[in-house]
Amino acid sequence: MTIVAKEFHRYELEYSVKLHDRGWSKTYTRLGRFDSTHVAQIVRFLLVRGPAPKLADCQLRVSSLEIWKPANKVNVLRTDWLAPTPAVLAVLGFLFIALFPLGLLFLAGAGLAFYLLRRRRAVVLSPGKPVVEPRTLSLVDSWQAVISGLGADTELLRERLFTVLQDPPMAGLQSRVETIWYWGLDGKVEREQIVLTFRRAILFCQIYQYDQELYVGWDAHLNHGHWVEKTVGTGIHKESNEFTRVNTVESGRKQLTEYDVTDVNCLTEWTHTKLVQLVKRLMEECKIDQEIDFKILRGERQNLTTSEQTGEGVQQAARRVTRKLVRMG
After folding, report:
1. Across the chain, how many H-helices and E-strands are there?
2. Does domain 122-305 have CATH number 3.30.530?
């Protein structure tokens, strides 16, 4: 199930539900409501104790032809009757084009009205973007190791890493603990991972105990995701009577640069150095004699700054090569 926020709309939440059961699948999009009754229908259906859920009566209007479905309109605005003024004057100008002075006057009025309406000051209503950027990740580097005999010292290693993270060497480096879950063999499984962020670089650090074994690893990524503001409606505000533009915030994809690659390199090298020092120190204290490969598994970096959607990265590279050839020539 997917939940999409629709601020300033009649229905502030829209739901999408996708069902899969023994080869059968059904998708319900743009549901205006989804309550405990619908949940009970889905559960009974999945347990083969009831018919397929009926959610079509909850669907909102997708196209203007579906007049029997409710429309999820912006409910804080009313119609701006000044907006069609340029079009109306332009139509009158072409209708009276034979009457040269009158037709020209209407066309001039259309141009003036269009200019004045474009210069109107608009009040912008926006829900604001979330504190955390959306994640569209590209794996860069990783490293992992298993040390026998240090399973009981897992929490000690985590505490020492937290102590190091309290005094980061560079402004903007942040750390926190995130809980992730996934479906295991016997139900839902939850784990904690340490997350380090530095600008568009994200590193996930895992320190887990497997009986007497200590697992230590991390994987570094670059985040292409960012929030994009999009206009969903314009009109006159019902309370303030001002010309208003209503915006929403959606997730988008941002083109990465060479500087983002430098940031993830810095985060990777610093974190790996500190983690290696902590692991070696713990092995010395516990007198663990084991060969550990501390070499980082490097990933591809050539395509990180290349746009997959527009080929912008390829064009930029071509322009750089052209400039070099011009300078050489």
Report:
1. 6, 13
2. yes
